[in-house]
Amino acid sequence: MTPTLVRNLRDADPSAPADSGTRARDWAEIQERMLAPLYEAVYDRLEVGPATRMLSLGCGSGLAMLVAAARGAQVTGVDSDRERLALARERLLPDDGTEGAEGAPARRARLHDDGLPAGTCADRAPYDLITVFEPIGCAAGDSEGLVPALESALPLAARGATVVLTGWGPPERCATAPVLRVAARLTESARPPRPGGWRPTLRDDLEDVAARAGLKPDGSGRVSCPFGYADPDSAVRGLLSTGLFDAAVRATDRSQVEKEVAEALHPYRRPDGTVWMPNVFRYLVCTT
């Protein structure tokens, strides 16, 4: 097995600004929970439970894995963002942060940065579920690293295993889309234009990835995932933690991006100061 299973699926541009511990924690504490309805809907549909062996590609700070582990699933996560992965270790391995030490009791979670160790196939049962819960379809090139990651992971899966891909829903069903257009406008203002800016979600984004990875679509669904924040500052921090504004930050500067995102949030502010944006996300169920 090659040492690199997953490049950072959040950023197709290697010149993106380095993620800080603060940004990783903003993701874990503010933004990640917005996708919890998506995780639950997928797990309900697939009846995830004690018999499930799940591999999570781009697992981030581990909330989706935590939900699956609470259902009894054996979970393995891979991510190249070490700061998010450190937060996943705090959630899933709170005792000492180590995994699979010789002589230790079997753990229901394993975490790996930037790859799975050689011998994974030989010394463990194959995975019957592979998930990619990092939604694609809102940034140019955001699926480029996904197909190679899937191709590397599929040899670890059982015959007929399930693979779940996720993406943003149609822009007209996502209140966050107009806010994300700030990223496109600021990115396009750069000379020359910077790669990785926002673009509208396409109807067949997930099917295209499945076809390139040699997967067979076997159903899909849509899930309501509203983005709700305590105040505009939390909303700005949460949205910037997604990485969808990285190209805009490179094209201008963080202060300008924060200012313009805050202005774009005005239509979604409630009288009590909270921010509420209804969104729809989509998932595609495939088989190997």
Automatic annotation (TrEMBL):
The keyword Coiled coil does not apply. Its EC number is 2.1.1.-. InterPro entries: Methyltransf_11, SAM-dependent_MTases_sf. One of its GO terms (molecular function) is methyltransferase activity. The keyword Transferase applies. One of its GO terms (biological process) is methylation. It comes from the Bacteria. Signal peptide: none annotated. Residues 55-92 form the Methyltransferase type domain. Keywords: Methyltransferase, Transferase. Residues 1-23, 92-111 are annotated as: Disordered. SUPFAM superfamilies: S-adenosyl-L-methionine-dependent methyltransferases. This is Class I SAM-dependent methyltransferase.
